[in-house]
C-alpha cells in the first residue's frame, strides 16, 4: 500500500495532508479528521481499504496545516476540502468524516454538492447539545478533556508525549503502532519544548459550532441520502457515549435518509484507530463505493 503526503493551494496558504493508493481505480474516499487530530487518524482505515484511493487532509489549524490563518469555521474547512480535491484532480469522492470532521463533511456536502458521491458520519455530525450552564469559552475543555489539555503543554521528548497519550483512558488501553504514529506526527518544535501541532484558537472556534446552530442542523436534514452514521457505545473518556441512543433515535426519526450503524465494543477514538473499529466501518463503505461505481458506470 503506497502512502505519500501532499500540499494543495487554499486561501492564504497551503493545506497539507496524506493520501494512500493514489493510482487506485474507482471513486476515491475523502477522509476528514476530528477537532484536534490530523490525517494520521486514518492510517488503519486506509490499510483496511487497499483497493481505493484515500485522501485525508490536515484541516486548517492542525497538523502540517497549522500555520494557515483564520477563519477556522466549518465553511472555511469545507472550501479548503474543495480546493484540495481540485489540486489532486478529483471530481467527486465518498466523504467520510470522524467526530468534528463529520460536521465539516456535512458542510462540504451543502456547499459543494457536486463533489460528494456519498456521506458517511463516524461518531460525529449529529448536533451535540451544549451542557447546561457552560459558557462558550469553557466548552472546549468540557467537551474534549485531556485531548485539549495537551495544547497548552510542552514535552521534553517524544517519549514524554507518548506517555501522556498512554495515560489517556480512551487510547492507552488500546495502544497500537498506528496510534503511536499518529501521536508522533502531532508533535512540532524542538526538544525540550515539543508541543502539539493543533491550534488552540482553531479548536475553540470549532468546539462552539457543534450544537447545530447557524444553519447546520438544516444542512444535515437536507443532506441527500443515504447518510450512514456509525455510533460508538463509549465516548471520549472510554465511558459515556458522545451520542446516547435516544439522541440518535431522535435524529433518525427526523432524517429518513439516516442509516444508523451501532459498532460494538469501541469508543470515540478506537472506532477508527484500531483494526477492529476500522474493520467494522469498512464493509458499509465498500458497499457504498461499489454502488456509486455501478451507478456512474451506467450513466
Summarize the structure.
This is Lipase. By secondary structure, the chain is an alpha/beta fold.
Description:
By secondary structure, the protein is of the alpha/beta class. The protein has one domain: Alpha/Beta hydrolase fold, catalytic domain (Rossmann fold, 3-Layer(aba) Sandwich), CATH 3.40.50.1820. The chain has helices at residues 43-47, 74-87, 100-111, 139-144, 146-149, 158-166, 177-186, 200-207, 216-221, 245-254, 270-273, 275-298, and strands at residues 3-10, 13-20, 29-32, 54-57, 93-98, 116-122, 187-188, 195-196, 227-231, 258-262. The strands form two sheets. An eight-stranded mixed beta sheet has the order 1-2-4-3-5-6-9-10, with helices on both faces. The protein is globular and about 60 Å long. Pfam families: Abhydrolase_1 (PF00561). Keywords: Hydrolase. This is Lipase.
